Amino acid sequence: MPASDHSAVIRVRGLVTRFGAQTIHDGLDLDVRRGEVLGVVGGSGTGKSVLLKAIIGLVRPAAGSIEVLGEDTATLNDAERIGLQARWGVLFQDGALFSSMTVAENIQVPLKEHTTLDRATIAEVARIKIAMTGLPPDAGLKYPSELSGGMKKRAGLARALALDPEILFLDEPTAGLDPIGAAAFDDLIKGLQRSLGLTVFMVTHDLDSLRAICDRIAVLIDKRILVDTMEALRLLDQPWIREYFHGPRGRAALGAGA
Ligand SMILES: Nc1ncnc2c1ncn2[C@@H]1O[C@H](COP(=O)(O)OP(=O)(O)OP(=O)(O)O)[C@@H](O)[C@H]1O
């Protein structure tokens, strides 16, 4: 494998984000490696979603730099920004589907926005994405209100994959799913990540997901990030990490030896 395959596809340096007087991140550094599944964890309100939004340009940093796929996101003009956005897909927590559109129409939105493909090809791509995410073929004709929670997530994932992105951002993908549905969704993400060579940035609270599919884990603590493998992080003597990995839920998810 060439050395460049190990290079960071997301490089955050000295990130500071603020809302009014509240500082969310203060000098945060993070590298996300090409082809890895990175799980992002941390206590409630520590800034996991804000970090995701800062990386995809929905929150403007007060200081620091964010490079995605080699592009410094602060210096892009509109055309460059749109070009970069086409190289990642995002699945927000609730799926964020347009309720007035069918699943197929939802998936077609980014294709219509970012490509010059004809209607028949766009419809065919949408059909492929529906199949890839394990939805039945007739799901394309359904409206979001007619879908179960798990199907909504799959439809959101199909839309996130519409443009064959290099990076997939997931915000709490298994939240609200029952354990069997969550495990199936984890399997789907891991399978797609492997077959498509995706880099996955996944905000989650779900210890089962972390164990099942993440290569490394980033922990938001004190407005910064600690990143390592789960095995290495679990050895750290840090109060939140101890509680998270060695508390009752951590022990249950990680096995009796945790
Ligand atoms: N648009 C906004 N305006 C003002 N404050 C915000 C905004 N977005 C987020 N915040 C604040 O930033 C902090 C971090 O929020 P964020 O949603 O990133 O937390 P989180 O770590 O994802 O939490 P959770 O696990 O509970 O979802 C919170 O205190 C939140 O209230």
UniProtKB/TrEMBL annotation:
GO terms for molecular function: ATP binding; ATP hydrolysis activity. This is ABC transporter ATP-binding protein. Pfam families: ABC_tran (PF00005). Residues 10-247 form the ABC transporter domain. InterPro entries: AAA+_ATPase, ABC_transporter-like_ATP-bd, ABC_transporter-like_CS, P-loop_NTPase. It comes from Skermanella aerolata. It comes from the Bacteria. Keywords: ATP-binding, Nucleotide-binding, Transport.
